[in-house]
Amino acid sequence: EEQKLLLQGQPDQPQNPKVLRIAIIGAPNAGKSTLSNQLLGRKVFPVSKKVHTTRCKARGVITSEDTQLIILDTPGLTSPFKAKRHKLEEAMLTDPFESMKHADLVLVLVDVSDHWTRNCLSKEVLNCLSQFPQIPSILVLNKVDLLKNKLILLELVNDLTEGIVNGKKLEVKSAFNHNSSSSAKSTLQITQASPPKSRAPASHSLQETDQAQEGSGLDSSSDLRASKSCLTTEEPQGPKLYGPSDLKNMKGWPHFQEIFMLAALCGEEVDTLKQYLLMQARPGPWEFHSGVLTSQSPQEVCNNIIREKILEYLPLEVPYGVIQVTEMWEEGPSGELVIVQNLLVPRNSHKMMLIGRGGTVISRIAQEAGQDLMNAFLCDVRLKLKVEVKS
Protein backbone atom coordinates (compact mmCIF):
# COMPACT_ATOMS: atom_id res chain seq x y z
CA GLU A 1 0.00 0.00 0.00
CA GLU A 2 2.83 2.39 0.81
CA GLN A 3 4.48 1.67 -2.55
CA LYS A 4 1.18 2.23 -4.36
CA LEU A 5 0.67 5.60 -2.64
CA LEU A 6 4.22 6.71 -3.46
CA LEU A 7 3.83 5.72 -7.13
CA GLN A 8 0.41 7.38 -7.48
CA GLY A 9 1.28 10.52 -5.53
CA GLN A 10 3.02 13.63 -6.76
CA PRO A 11 6.83 13.67 -6.54
CA ASP A 12 8.25 15.76 -3.68
CA GLN A 13 10.01 18.18 -6.03
CA PRO A 14 13.02 20.19 -4.81
CA GLN A 15 13.37 23.81 -5.84
CA ASN A 16 15.60 23.16 -8.87
CA PRO A 17 15.09 19.50 -9.81
CA LYS A 18 17.33 17.68 -12.26
CA VAL A 19 16.64 14.37 -13.97
CA LEU A 20 18.33 11.85 -16.26
CA ARG A 21 16.65 8.86 -17.90
CA ILE A 22 19.14 6.10 -18.63
CA ALA A 23 18.49 3.11 -20.89
CA ILE A 24 20.81 0.15 -20.29
CA ILE A 25 21.02 -2.09 -23.34
CA GLY A 26 23.21 -5.01 -24.34
CA ALA A 27 23.23 -8.65 -25.25
CA PRO A 28 21.43 -11.11 -22.96
CA ASN A 29 23.42 -11.90 -19.81
CA ALA A 30 25.80 -8.94 -20.16
CA GLY A 31 25.06 -7.91 -16.58
CA LYS A 32 22.46 -5.16 -17.08
CA SER A 33 20.33 -6.08 -14.06
CA THR A 34 23.40 -6.62 -11.87
CA LEU A 35 24.65 -3.15 -12.75
CA SER A 36 21.18 -1.67 -12.13
CA ASN A 37 21.02 -3.29 -8.68
CA GLN A 38 24.48 -2.02 -7.79
CA LEU A 39 23.60 1.52 -8.86
CA LEU A 40 20.40 1.35 -6.79
CA GLY A 41 22.17 -0.12 -3.76
CA ARG A 42 19.54 -2.84 -3.31
CA LYS A 43 18.46 -5.87 -5.28
CA VAL A 44 15.17 -5.18 -7.05
CA PHE A 45 15.90 -6.68 -10.48
CA PRO A 46 16.33 -10.43 -11.04
CA VAL A 47 19.80 -11.74 -11.84
CA SER A 48 20.72 -15.14 -13.25
CA LYS A 49 23.37 -16.81 -15.38
CA LYS A 50 20.58 -17.91 -17.71
CA VAL A 51 19.72 -15.60 -20.60
CA HIS A 52 16.48 -13.59 -20.66
CA THR A 53 16.07 -13.36 -16.89
CA THR A 54 14.62 -9.86 -17.38
CA ARG A 55 11.37 -10.33 -19.31
CA CYS A 56 10.06 -6.75 -19.41
CA LYS A 57 11.27 -3.21 -18.94
CA ALA A 58 11.29 -1.98 -15.35
CA ARG A 59 12.49 1.27 -13.86
CA GLY A 60 14.81 1.85 -10.96
CA VAL A 61 14.99 5.24 -9.24
CA ILE A 62 18.05 6.86 -7.65
CA THR A 63 17.41 10.14 -5.82
CA SER A 64 20.39 12.14 -4.60
CA GLU A 65 19.79 15.66 -3.26
CA ASP A 66 18.16 17.60 -6.15
CA THR A 67 18.90 14.94 -8.81
CA GLN A 68 16.89 11.90 -9.87
CA LEU A 69 18.26 9.12 -12.08
CA ILE A 70 15.72 6.84 -13.72
CA ILE A 71 17.24 3.54 -14.83
CA LEU A 72 15.40 1.71 -17.58
CA ASP A 73 16.48 -1.92 -17.09
CA THR A 74 15.54 -3.63 -20.34
CA PRO A 75 15.46 -7.21 -21.60
CA GLY A 76 18.55 -8.31 -23.50
CA LEU A 77 18.32 -7.41 -27.16
CA THR A 78 17.54 -10.58 -29.05
CA SER A 79 16.41 -11.78 -32.47
CA PRO A 80 12.90 -13.04 -33.34
CA PHE A 81 14.38 -16.55 -33.84
CA LYS A 82 15.87 -16.66 -30.35
CA ALA A 83 12.73 -15.15 -28.86
CA LYS A 84 10.66 -17.96 -30.36
CA ARG A 85 13.14 -20.57 -29.13
CA HIS A 86 12.88 -19.37 -25.52
CA LYS A 87 9.10 -18.77 -25.80
CA LEU A 88 9.61 -15.10 -25.05
CA GLU A 89 6.86 -12.52 -25.11
CA GLU A 90 6.74 -10.15 -28.09
CA ALA A 91 7.35 -7.31 -25.64
CA MET A 92 10.91 -8.53 -25.18
CA LEU A 93 11.64 -7.57 -28.77
CA THR A 94 10.04 -4.13 -28.50
CA ASP A 95 10.72 -3.03 -24.88
CA PRO A 96 14.39 -2.02 -25.41
CA PHE A 97 13.35 0.16 -28.37
CA GLU A 98 10.50 1.67 -26.34
CA SER A 99 12.92 2.49 -23.52
CA MET A 100 15.27 4.20 -25.96
CA LYS A 101 12.47 6.58 -27.01
CA HIS A 102 12.33 7.96 -23.46
CA ALA A 103 16.07 7.94 -22.67
CA ASP A 104 18.38 10.94 -22.28
CA LEU A 105 21.44 8.67 -22.23
CA VAL A 106 22.11 5.07 -23.22
CA LEU A 107 24.61 2.72 -21.59
CA VAL A 108 25.78 -0.09 -23.84
CA LEU A 109 27.01 -2.93 -21.64
CA VAL A 110 29.52 -5.47 -22.97
CA ASP A 111 30.68 -8.60 -21.14
CA VAL A 112 34.45 -8.58 -21.75
CA SER A 113 34.84 -12.04 -20.19
CA ASP A 114 32.93 -13.66 -23.07
CA HIS A 115 35.62 -14.18 -25.70
CA TRP A 116 33.00 -15.28 -28.25
CA THR A 117 31.08 -12.00 -28.31
CA ARG A 118 33.25 -9.28 -26.76
CA ASN A 119 34.98 -8.07 -29.95
CA CYS A 120 31.85 -6.74 -31.59
CA LEU A 121 28.45 -5.36 -30.70
CA SER A 122 25.53 -7.59 -31.65
CA LYS A 123 23.51 -6.65 -34.71
CA GLU A 124 20.51 -6.05 -32.44
CA VAL A 125 22.46 -3.53 -30.33
CA LEU A 126 23.83 -1.75 -33.41
CA ASN A 127 20.35 -1.63 -34.92
CA CYS A 128 19.00 -0.10 -31.72
CA LEU A 129 21.76 2.55 -31.60
CA SER A 130 21.38 3.37 -35.29
CA GLN A 131 17.67 4.06 -34.85
CA PHE A 132 18.40 6.61 -32.10
CA PRO A 133 21.70 8.25 -33.13
CA GLN A 134 20.72 11.53 -31.45
CA ILE A 135 20.80 9.99 -27.95
CA PRO A 136 24.23 10.30 -26.26
CA SER A 137 25.73 6.87 -25.61
CA ILE A 138 28.53 5.54 -23.45
CA LEU A 139 30.29 2.19 -23.60
CA VAL A 140 30.56 0.19 -20.38
CA LEU A 141 32.98 -2.75 -20.37
CA ASN A 142 31.77 -5.10 -17.63
CA LYS A 143 33.48 -8.00 -15.81
CA VAL A 144 36.99 -6.59 -16.33
CA ASP A 145 38.03 -8.33 -13.10
CA LEU A 146 37.79 -11.67 -14.95
CA LEU A 147 40.44 -10.68 -17.51
CA LYS A 148 43.94 -11.90 -16.77
CA ASN A 149 45.49 -9.93 -19.61
CA LYS A 150 44.25 -6.33 -19.31
CA LEU A 151 45.85 -5.42 -22.66
CA ILE A 152 42.84 -7.04 -24.32
CA LEU A 153 40.88 -3.98 -23.19
CA LEU A 154 42.83 -1.77 -25.61
CA GLU A 155 41.90 -4.01 -28.52
CA LEU A 156 38.27 -4.16 -27.38
CA VAL A 157 38.03 -0.38 -27.07
CA ASN A 158 39.32 0.00 -30.62
CA ASP A 159 36.93 -2.63 -32.02
CA LEU A 160 33.81 -1.57 -30.11
CA THR A 161 34.23 2.12 -30.96
CA GLU A 162 35.30 1.67 -34.61
CA GLY A 163 38.40 3.60 -33.53
CA ILE A 164 36.43 6.79 -32.72
CA VAL A 165 35.46 8.16 -29.30
CA ASN A 166 33.67 11.47 -28.74
CA GLY A 167 34.17 12.40 -32.37
CA LYS A 168 37.93 11.95 -32.28
CA LYS A 169 40.00 9.26 -33.94
CA LEU A 170 41.54 6.77 -31.55
CA GLU A 171 45.21 6.01 -32.07
CA VAL A 172 46.62 3.17 -30.04
CA LYS A 173 50.28 3.71 -29.25
CA SER A 174 51.65 0.98 -27.05
CA ALA A 175 54.99 1.10 -25.24
CA PHE A 176 56.24 -2.31 -24.13
CA ASN A 177 58.79 -3.02 -21.42
CA HIS A 178 59.11 -6.77 -21.29
CA ASN A 179 60.29 -8.22 -18.03
CA SER A 180 59.39 -11.82 -17.37
CA SER A 181 60.09 -11.50 -13.64
CA SER A 182 58.17 -8.26 -13.28
CA SER A 183 55.19 -8.19 -10.97
CA ALA A 184 54.49 -4.54 -11.69
CA LYS A 185 51.02 -3.39 -12.56
CA SER A 186 50.27 -2.84 -16.21
CA THR A 187 49.35 0.78 -16.81
CA LEU A 188 46.37 1.27 -19.08
CA GLN A 189 45.91 4.93 -19.90
CA ILE A 190 43.50 6.25 -22.46
CA THR A 191 43.81 10.01 -22.59
CA GLN A 192 41.80 12.51 -24.54
CA ALA A 193 43.31 15.54 -26.19
CA SER A 194 40.45 17.92 -25.46
CA PRO A 195 38.04 16.54 -22.84
CA PRO A 196 34.41 17.56 -23.26
CA LYS A 197 32.78 19.87 -20.76
CA SER A 198 30.83 18.62 -17.73
CA ARG A 199 33.14 15.65 -17.39
CA ALA A 200 33.16 13.74 -14.14
CA PRO A 201 36.36 13.51 -12.06
CA ALA A 202 39.30 12.24 -14.09
CA SER A 203 39.61 8.93 -12.26
CA HIS A 204 37.22 7.23 -14.67
CA SER A 205 35.92 6.94 -18.20
CA LEU A 206 38.39 7.69 -20.98
CA GLN A 207 41.05 9.08 -18.70
CA GLU A 208 42.18 6.23 -16.45
CA THR A 209 44.76 6.79 -13.73
CA ASP A 210 46.70 4.13 -11.85
CA GLN A 211 44.44 4.62 -8.87
CA ALA A 212 41.32 4.10 -10.95
CA GLN A 213 42.80 0.98 -12.46
CA GLU A 214 43.19 -0.58 -9.04
CA GLY A 215 39.52 0.08 -8.34
CA SER A 216 38.33 -1.25 -11.66
CA GLY A 217 40.34 -4.43 -11.63
CA LEU A 218 42.87 -3.17 -14.15
CA ASP A 219 45.93 -4.09 -12.14
CA SER A 220 47.79 -7.08 -13.43
CA SER A 221 51.03 -8.97 -13.00
CA SER A 222 51.50 -9.27 -16.74
CA ASP A 223 54.79 -8.85 -18.55
CA LEU A 224 53.70 -5.47 -19.80
CA ARG A 225 55.01 -2.42 -17.93
CA ALA A 226 53.01 0.25 -19.74
CA SER A 227 50.50 0.64 -22.47
CA LYS A 228 49.08 3.92 -23.64
CA SER A 229 46.55 4.92 -26.22
CA CYS A 230 45.68 8.50 -27.07
CA LEU A 231 43.15 10.28 -29.19
CA THR A 232 44.19 12.57 -32.02
CA THR A 233 42.36 15.86 -32.11
CA GLU A 234 39.67 16.02 -34.72
CA GLU A 235 36.52 18.07 -34.82
CA PRO A 236 33.59 16.11 -33.34
CA GLN A 237 31.07 15.12 -35.97
CA GLY A 238 27.38 14.51 -35.38
CA PRO A 239 26.14 10.95 -35.82
CA LYS A 240 24.91 10.12 -39.27
CA LEU A 241 22.06 7.82 -40.13
CA TYR A 242 23.08 4.23 -40.83
CA GLY A 243 21.27 1.85 -43.13
CA PRO A 244 21.28 -1.97 -43.04
CA SER A 245 24.19 -2.10 -45.50
CA ASP A 246 26.28 0.16 -43.23
CA LEU A 247 25.58 -1.90 -40.12
CA LYS A 248 26.52 -5.10 -41.93
CA ASN A 249 30.17 -4.05 -42.03
CA MET A 250 30.35 -2.47 -38.55
CA LYS A 251 31.75 -4.16 -35.46
CA GLY A 252 31.28 -1.25 -33.10
CA TRP A 253 29.60 2.13 -32.69
CA PRO A 254 31.67 5.22 -33.57
CA HIS A 255 29.62 7.70 -31.51
CA PHE A 256 30.30 6.73 -27.90
CA GLN A 257 31.06 9.77 -25.73
CA GLU A 258 32.74 7.94 -22.86
CA ILE A 259 34.14 4.54 -21.94
CA PHE A 260 33.85 2.97 -18.49
CA MET A 261 35.50 -0.21 -17.25
CA LEU A 262 34.04 -1.89 -14.20
CA ALA A 263 33.04 -5.10 -12.44
CA ALA A 264 29.34 -4.78 -11.64
CA LEU A 265 29.03 -8.00 -9.63
CA CYS A 266 31.51 -6.90 -6.95
CA GLY A 267 30.72 -3.20 -7.34
CA GLU A 268 34.14 -2.09 -8.57
CA GLU A 269 34.03 1.40 -10.14
CA VAL A 270 30.19 1.38 -10.09
CA ASP A 271 30.16 4.43 -7.82
CA THR A 272 32.40 6.26 -10.30
CA LEU A 273 29.86 5.59 -13.04
CA LYS A 274 27.05 6.68 -10.72
CA GLN A 275 28.75 10.01 -9.98
CA TYR A 276 29.23 10.59 -13.70
CA LEU A 277 25.53 9.92 -14.36
CA LEU A 278 24.51 12.35 -11.61
CA MET A 279 26.65 15.02 -13.27
CA GLN A 280 24.93 14.46 -16.63
CA ALA A 281 21.43 15.18 -15.26
CA ARG A 282 19.54 18.05 -16.84
CA PRO A 283 17.06 20.52 -15.30
CA GLY A 284 13.61 18.94 -15.33
CA PRO A 285 10.79 17.69 -13.11
CA TRP A 286 11.13 14.46 -11.18
CA GLU A 287 8.96 11.52 -12.22
CA PHE A 288 8.91 9.76 -8.84
CA HIS A 289 8.71 10.52 -5.15
CA SER A 290 12.13 10.42 -3.48
CA GLY A 291 10.98 7.38 -1.48
CA VAL A 292 10.52 5.24 -4.61
CA LEU A 293 13.25 2.74 -5.47
CA THR A 294 11.53 0.96 -8.36
CA SER A 295 8.42 1.30 -10.50
CA GLN A 296 7.64 -2.37 -9.89
CA SER A 297 4.97 -3.42 -7.41
CA PRO A 298 6.13 -5.59 -4.47
CA GLN A 299 4.38 -8.54 -6.13
CA GLU A 300 6.40 -8.02 -9.32
CA VAL A 301 9.63 -7.85 -7.34
CA CYS A 302 8.64 -11.07 -5.56
CA ASN A 303 7.76 -12.89 -8.79
CA ASN A 304 11.01 -11.85 -10.43
CA ILE A 305 13.18 -12.95 -7.51
CA ILE A 306 11.49 -16.37 -7.29
CA ARG A 307 11.77 -16.76 -11.05
CA GLU A 308 15.47 -15.91 -10.85
CA LYS A 309 16.03 -18.88 -8.51
CA ILE A 310 13.98 -21.20 -10.73
CA LEU A 311 16.16 -20.21 -13.68
CA GLU A 312 19.25 -20.86 -11.63
CA TYR A 313 18.35 -24.38 -10.50
CA LEU A 314 16.39 -25.85 -13.41
CA PRO A 315 18.17 -27.09 -16.57
CA LEU A 316 17.91 -25.94 -20.17
CA GLU A 317 14.53 -24.62 -21.31
CA VAL A 318 12.52 -26.02 -18.38
CA PRO A 319 12.28 -22.78 -16.30
CA TYR A 320 10.83 -20.76 -19.18
CA GLY A 321 7.59 -22.78 -19.03
CA VAL A 322 6.89 -22.20 -15.31
CA ILE A 323 3.82 -20.08 -14.48
CA GLN A 324 3.71 -18.35 -11.07
CA VAL A 325 0.41 -17.86 -9.24
CA THR A 326 0.39 -16.02 -5.89
CA GLU A 327 -2.21 -17.58 -3.58
CA MET A 328 -1.49 -15.60 -0.42
CA TRP A 329 0.08 -12.22 0.34
CA GLU A 330 -0.68 -10.97 3.84
CA GLU A 331 0.79 -9.81 7.10
CA GLY A 332 1.46 -12.56 9.63
CA PRO A 333 0.83 -12.47 13.40
CA SER A 334 4.31 -11.09 14.15
CA GLY A 335 4.27 -8.47 11.39
CA GLU A 336 6.11 -10.66 8.88
CA LEU A 337 5.07 -10.87 5.22
CA VAL A 338 3.54 -14.27 4.43
CA ILE A 339 3.68 -15.29 0.77
CA VAL A 340 2.35 -18.53 -0.72
CA GLN A 341 3.03 -19.07 -4.41
CA ASN A 342 1.99 -21.94 -6.67
CA LEU A 343 4.41 -22.87 -9.45
CA LEU A 344 2.63 -24.45 -12.43
CA VAL A 345 4.70 -26.61 -14.78
CA PRO A 346 3.62 -28.28 -18.07
CA ARG A 347 4.88 -31.83 -17.34
CA ASN A 348 5.19 -34.17 -14.40
CA SER A 349 8.90 -34.64 -15.19
CA HIS A 350 9.36 -30.87 -14.77
CA LYS A 351 7.54 -31.08 -11.44
CA MET A 352 9.95 -33.74 -10.19
CA MET A 353 12.95 -31.66 -11.28
CA LEU A 354 11.62 -28.53 -9.57
CA ILE A 355 10.88 -30.35 -6.32
CA GLY A 356 14.12 -32.33 -6.36
CA ARG A 357 14.98 -35.46 -4.40
CA GLY A 358 13.43 -35.16 -0.95
CA GLY A 359 12.30 -31.60 -1.77
CA THR A 360 15.87 -30.29 -1.77
CA VAL A 361 15.57 -28.07 -4.87
CA ILE A 362 12.29 -26.34 -4.01
CA SER A 363 13.45 -25.86 -0.41
CA ARG A 364 16.66 -24.19 -1.56
CA ILE A 365 14.74 -21.94 -3.97
CA ALA A 366 12.32 -20.89 -1.20
CA GLN A 367 15.14 -20.24 1.27
CA GLU A 368 17.27 -18.14 -1.11
CA ALA A 369 14.30 -16.24 -2.56
CA GLY A 370 13.00 -15.55 0.94
CA GLN A 371 16.35 -14.08 1.97
CA ASP A 372 16.47 -11.85 -1.13
CA LEU A 373 12.91 -10.68 -0.46
CA MET A 374 13.83 -9.75 3.11
CA ASN A 375 16.73 -7.67 1.78
CA ALA A 376 14.46 -6.04 -0.82
CA PHE A 377 11.50 -5.30 1.46
CA LEU A 378 13.51 -4.72 4.67
CA CYS A 379 11.14 -6.90 6.70
CA ASP A 380 10.79 -10.56 7.73
CA VAL A 381 9.36 -12.78 4.97
CA ARG A 382 7.87 -16.27 5.25
CA LEU A 383 7.76 -17.81 1.78
CA LYS A 384 6.06 -21.07 0.88
CA LEU A 385 6.26 -22.55 -2.64
CA LYS A 386 4.03 -25.30 -4.06
CA VAL A 387 4.49 -27.12 -7.37
CA GLU A 388 1.68 -28.47 -9.57
CA VAL A 389 1.27 -29.70 -13.12
CA LYS A 390 -0.95 -27.22 -14.93
CA SER A 391 -4.10 -28.69 -16.45
CATH topology of the largest domain: Rossmann fold
Order of helices and strands: HEHEEHHEHEHEEEHEHEHEHEEHHE
What general form does the structure show? globular
Count of discrete alpha- or pi-helical segments spanning 4 or more residues: 12
End-to-end CA span = 33 Å
* Biggest β-sheet description: 7 strands, mixed
Question: At the fourth CATH level, what is the homologous superfamily of the largest domain?
Answer: P-loop containing nucleotide triphosphate hydrolases
Mean pLDDT score? 78
Radius of gyration: 22 Å
CATH class of the largest domain: Alpha Beta
Bin the helical content: 25-40%
Content of β-strand? 15-25%
**Got a strand count?**
14
Question: How would you describe what is shown here?
Answer:
The protein has helices spanning about 1-10, 30-40, 80-85, 90-100, 125-130, 150-160, 210-215, 245-250, 270-280, 300-315, 350-355, 360-375, and strands at about 20-25, 60-65, 65-75, 105-110, 135-140, 165, 170-175, 185-190, 225-230, 255-260, 280-285, 325-330, 335-345, 380-390. With about 400 residues, it is of the alpha/beta class. The protein folds into 2 domains: about 1-175 and about 245-285, 3-Layer(aba) Sandwich (Rossmann fold); about 300-390, K homology (KH) domain (GMP Synthetase, Chain A, domain 3), CATH 3.30.300. Strands 1, 2, 3, 4, 5, 10 and 11 form a 7-stranded mixed sheet that branches. A hairpin with a 2-residue loop joins strand 6 (about 165) and strand 7 (about 170-175). Helix 10 packs antiparallel against helix 12 (about 360-375).
